[in-house]
Amino acid sequence: MASMACGSFSLFHERVSPLRPTTHLRRSAARFRLVEKSRRSLPPRYEANSEPADPPVADTASELESVVVANFGEDNGANISQSELFPALPNKSINRRIALTSTVAAFGLFLSSRLEFGISLKDLSSAAVPYEEALLNGKPTVVEFYADWCEVCRELAPDIYKVENQYKDRVNFVLLNVDNTKWEQELDEFGVEGIPHFAFLDRNGNEEGNIVGRLPKKYLLENVEALAKGEPSVPHARMVGQYSSAESRKVYQVTDPRSHG
Question: Model confidence over 123-173: pLDDT tens digits?
Fold first, then answer.
């Protein structure tokens, strides 16, 4: 009986005794892994004063696509094209257009400089209206007395050319070479002592005023404008600037009244 009681007590003692150390450690380890797995699955929390982490930087196009989808969502990220993510690089077509534009601009500057500085007295003479015709066609007239050797005449040629092109349909522009003896009477009639000498005539051939020498372009322009409008007088009836003396002229007979020879 005693032995049976001892066996029963021993069996009962094993069943109610505390867990063995190995079993306890195993269950603790399993519980720790479960908690750690759950914690990793949760979204990251930020400290109260910490700054949010910078978004990831993609090194390749595929990684960039993943970042776009992660930041904007799959639907919004799909609408962003590659051209919006990467700046377009210049191609050969664009380079050709740039080169063509530069060439056209350079050619325009060349023509502008030619118009501004390349006009000569010969150019003005070739476009001038013969004096006899100007007196008969019923238009007002600008008569310029000049000479090839006149430095001021050559300097003013570009300005005269511009004004002439602007008003040639309404005003006659005549050039008379003071070296041509054919115009001796006109030299005396208009009192030419210095050149360039500009005489402004109305539609009937009557002189309304004159300007002599180098003067601002506006004086010539305003007088020609008054002639074109048929006004009874010109705003600058008598103006004198730097000029070349007509006494220095080289007198000889010229067949062509507009010749620069």
Answer: 888 889 999 999 999 999 999 999 999 999 999 999 999 999 999 999 999
Q: What is the C-alpha to C-alpha distance for residues 258 and 175, in angstroms, rounded to an integer? A: 6
Q: 10 Å Cβ neighbour count for 259? A: 15
Catalytic residue among 121, 129, 143, 153: 153
Active-site residue flag, 6: no
Which tokens in the block code for residue 216?
Answer: 């601002």
The active-site residue out of 119, 121, 128, 150 is 150
pTM for the predicted model, two decimal places: 0.54
> From residue 150, how far is each of 133, 186, 221 by CA, in Å?
26, 19, 21
pLDDT in tens, 108-118: 554 544 445 57
Nearest to 249 by CA among 199, 200, 183: 183
Q: What is the CA radius of gyration of the chain?
A: 51
